[in-house]
């Protein structure tokens, strides 16, 4: 399995507003993907930071997810927002 854990870090409230606007659809589409075991993006106590936890069945399904994400409205609208992620392969 492939696990991603980390943070989405906005520089300003306008970026956070983009996350709030586009995140619901991004979550819905991701959770419907083949190979998605879990997908959580949770706002933290800091309104500019979200905790991200993803789990996919294998590297292939994770790669497909990343490709779809880059081409999506979410990917395009939030591409300038910093992502601090670590990706692990787990048994």
TrEMBL record:
<keyword id="KW-0503">Monooxygenase</keyword>
<dbReference type="GO" id="GO:0004497">
    <property type="term" value="F:monooxygenase activity"/>
</dbReference>
<dbReference type="InterPro" id="IPR007138">
    <property type="entry name" value="ABM_dom"/>
</dbReference>
<dbReference type="InterPro" id="IPR011008">
    <property type="entry name" value="Dimeric_a/b-barrel"/>
</dbReference>
<dbReference type="Pfam" id="PF03992">
    <property type="entry name" value="ABM"/>
</dbReference>
<keyword id="KW-0560">Oxidoreductase</keyword>
<protein>
    <submittedName>
        <fullName>Quinol monooxygenase YgiN</fullName>
    </submittedName>
</protein>
<feature type="domain" description="ABM">
    <location>
        <begin position="15"/>
        <end position="74"/>
    </location>
</feature>
């Amino acid at each position: 399995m492939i696990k991603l854990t980390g943070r989405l870090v906005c520089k300003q409230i306008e970026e956070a507003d983009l996350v709030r606007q586009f995140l619901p659809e991004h979550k819905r589409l991701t959770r419907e993907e083949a190979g998605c075991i879990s997908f959580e993006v949770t706002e933290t106590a800091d309104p500019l930071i979200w905790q991200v936890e993803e789990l996919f069945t294998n590297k292939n399904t994770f790669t497909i997810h990343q490709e779809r994400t880059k081409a999506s409205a979410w990917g395009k609208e939030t591409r300038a927002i910093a992502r601090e992620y670590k990706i692990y392969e787990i048994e």
